[in-house]
Amino acid sequence: MRRVHVTVSGDVQGVGYRYTMRLVAREVGVAGWVRNRRDLTVEAEIEGTDEQVDEVLAWMAEGPPGSRVAAATVTDAAPTGARGFEVRNTA
C-alpha cells in the first residue's frame, strides 16, 4: 500500500474540485480525504495500490472542468490502513 499527501494550487476552490475528487477516489477505490485550506489550496491524502494512487494523482493534476491546476506537491506518508474517502472541513 502507498499513501501520499498532496497540496494542489491554482484555481481549485469554488469549482467542485473536492466533490469531484471524492467521486473519482471512490470509483478508483482509494481511501483518504480532501479539504480546502484557507490559503486557497486543496489538500488531500490518498491511500491505495501504486496504480490506484497514480490514477488519482493524474486526475488531480487536471482537476474538474472549470479548475486550473498550477502545481501539485506530492510527499509520501505512512499508510494507515484507512477505508473510505471523505470531504473534510476547511483547515
TrEMBL record:
The keyword Lipid metabolism does not apply. Residues 3-89 form the Acylphosphatase-like domain. The active site is at 18, 36. It catalyses: an acyl phosphate + H2O = a carboxylate + phosphate + H(+). The keyword Hydrolase applies. Its EC number is 3.6.1.7. Keywords: Hydrolase. InterPro entries: Acylphosphatase, Acylphosphatase-like_dom, Acylphosphatase-like_dom_sf. Belongs to the acylphosphatase family. This is acylphosphatase. It comes from Microbacterium pumilum.
